[in-house]
Structures are given as structure tokens and as C-alpha cells.
Design brief:
The protein is built from 14 helices and nine strands. The chain is an alpha/beta fold and 294 residues long. The protein folds into two domains: 3-159, Rossmann fold (3-Layer(aba) Sandwich); 166-284, N-(1-d-carboxylethyl)-l-norvaline Dehydrogenase, domain 2, CATH 1.10.1040.10. Strands 3-2-1-4-5-6 form a six-stranded parallel beta sheet, with helices on both faces. Helix 3 (51-57) crosses helix 4 (68-78). The chain is globular and about 65 Å long.
């Protein structure tokens, strides 16, 4: 199996690294050429001349981009180089309608599509411990399993194309709840004068312990919001969740509240920070003269 990776941000580069270590990576490509060159050199693999060239070289094309328009653009650029029997595996978080439409278009060329969004953050991408949420034909999924097992600790099949994205939407709602609770609780703790070195081990070791708290707790209290998962991306994902909910004639207060809070932080220029930068708003509630309701 020869795998090519398109999209070499934090997540894509981490996945490419694990595919290279598994002996599966043949080539990479990135829209920002300097980034592509750096990753290709570090992994000692080919830098494709473009998506069409990468498609010619590989059996499986794995994509990891930021938004629906980006994915459609990449797949359009791949089309001239794709051949019958190849598989496109998309690990991005995009809309259900987008992946269903792309899968239908690729099927006309007898090219299969797996929507396989992932969760686990930058650490999971680096360590190969992502959870992969897959939608697509079971036989096709089985055929590309070596590539998915190289990037993730577990691969779960949820149904046809689009069901990976539905599972990811549920994940992103839960992530919103966790970042809301952790940011608010830690702002409360800080304002109360509690010592983080004493408090955090207790929280992490009890019923409220979570990977997010473990990985971000100390950094949040230190004001370190270097991105593991950028707020702007979570904001985009929650809009996708809202679209799915609206199709069900529903809304979730947690989704609406978090979008509102992110709107404010993005307007203040914090979109490229980690989603835990929500703490900025929560801490401000405790500052004298700034106790506005969120």
C-alpha cells in the first residue's frame, strides 16, 4: 500500500509521520510549499508536484484540511490523477452533505471514499493514538485499515459515508461542554486562591478527571494557550453541529452558548489559540469591574 497525505498542518503532519514510520507513506503535498518541503525532508519521502501527481503515485490518498471548501478544492485537483480502485480517505471535520457529495462524484470514477474524522488532538496525531470515526463501504474500510491503524489507536465504523462526520459532531458538542466546564471551574479556583499544584492532581484523580483537564489544566492557569486544537476550528465545527441540529428542528443551548463565546474571542483576535483560551472570558468574570454575564 502506497499512501499519500495532503494537508500538513499539525494534525496532518503528525499522521504523515506515523504513516512513514509504518512504511506506508510514499508522498506528501501541502498548499504552502515551504511546509510541504519541510515535512517531506524530515520524513524522507517525496514531495508531490501537486494533488494530481500525488494521485498518480499512491493507492490511498489521505486528506486533512480545515474546511469544506478546502476539501472540495483538493478533491477537484485530485480528480485528473485518480484511477479506478483508488481510495480517498478524508480525516477532516466537514459537513455531512459535503462528504456525501464528494463520495458520489468519486464513485462515478470507481474511486472509493471514506470519511474518517479523528479526535485526540495534536498529541494523538503525533503519538498515533487518534480515535478514527469512519463512514463508508465496509470492504473499502477494511482495505485501508493498515493506514488507519498507523494513525490511530482505534477505528470505529459507524455506517455509510457521512456517519463518521455525524459521530465527530457529537464529539465536538462534548468537547464544548468540557472546555466550558474546565475553563469556568479553573477560573473559580484561581479567584478562590487555591494552589494549582494541590488542586489539579485531586481533580485529575477523581470522578471529574479527563484527558483535556490533564493536558490543559496547568497551561490554562499559566495563561498558556498554544494550540493543541485551535479555537477557530472548534468554532467552525460547532457551526457544522448547528447545521445538523437545525435539520432536526433542534438547537442545543451548549452549542449556541459556546459559539457566542467563541465569536467574542475571535473578534478579539484569539482564534489561533487553543480552544481552552475560553478561560480568558471566564477569568474576566471574577475581575473587579468586569463581572459581565456571558
Amino acid at each position: 500500500m502506497r499512501v499519500g497525505v495532503i494537508g500538513l498542518g499539525v494534525m496532518g503532519a503528525g499522521m504523515a509521520g506515523n504513516l512513514a514510520r509504518a512504511g506506508l507513506l510514499d508522498a506528501v503535498w501541502n498548499r504552502t510549499a515551504a511546509r510541504g518541503e519541510a515535512v517531506a525532508q524530515s520524513l524522507d519521502v517525496a514531495l508531490a508536484n501537486g494533488p494530481q501527481d500525488l494521485a498518480h503515485r499512491c493507492d490511498v490518498v489521505l486528506t486533512c484540511v480545515s474546511a469544506d471548501a478546502d476539501l472540495r478544492e483538493v478533491v477537484d485537483a485530485l480528480m485528473p490523477g485518480l484511477q479506478s480502485g483508488q481510495v480517498v480517505v478524508d480525516t477532516s471535520t466537514v459537513g455531512v452533505a459535503t462528504v456525501e457529495g464528494l463520495a458520489a462524484g468519486l464513485a462515478e470514477r470507481n474511486v472509493q471514499f471514506i470519511d474518517a474524522p479523528v479526535t485526540g488532538g495534536a498529541e494523538g496525531a503525533r503519538d498515533g493514538t487518534l480515535q478514527v470515526m469512519a463512514g463508508g463501504d465496509p470492504a473499502t474500510l477494511e482495505a485501508v485499515m493498515p493506514a488507519l491503524e498507523a494513525i490511530g489507536a482505534a477505528v470505529t465504523h459507524f455506517g455509510p459515508v457521512g456517519y463518521g462526520q455525524r459521530a465527530k459532531a457529537v464529539n465536538q458538542v462534548l468537547a464544548a461542554g468540557m472546555v466550558q466546564a474546565i475553563s469556568e471551574a479553573l477560573a473559580f479556583a484561581d479567584a478562590s486562591g487555591l494552589e494549582p499544584d494541590r488542586l489539579l492532581p485531586v481533580l485529575q484523580g477523581g470522578a471529574v478527571g479527563s484527558r483535556l483537564l490533564e493536558r490543559r489544566g496547568e497551561r490554562i492557569l499559566a495563561g498558556d494557550f498554544a494550540p493543541g486544537f485551535r479555537m477557530a476550528l472548534h468554532h467552525k465545527d460547532l457551526h457544522l453541529c448547528r447545521e445538523l441540529l437545525q435539520a432536526m428542528d433542534m438547537n442545543l443551548p451548549l452549542v449556541e452558548m459556546t459559539i457566542k463565546h467563541y465569536d467574542r474571542l475571535l473578534a478579539e483576535g484569539h482564534g489561533d489559540e487553543d480552544m481552552s483560551a475560553l478561560y480568558r472570558l471566564k477569568r474576566a468574570l471574577f475581575e473587579t469591574g468586569n463581572r459581565r454575564s456571558l
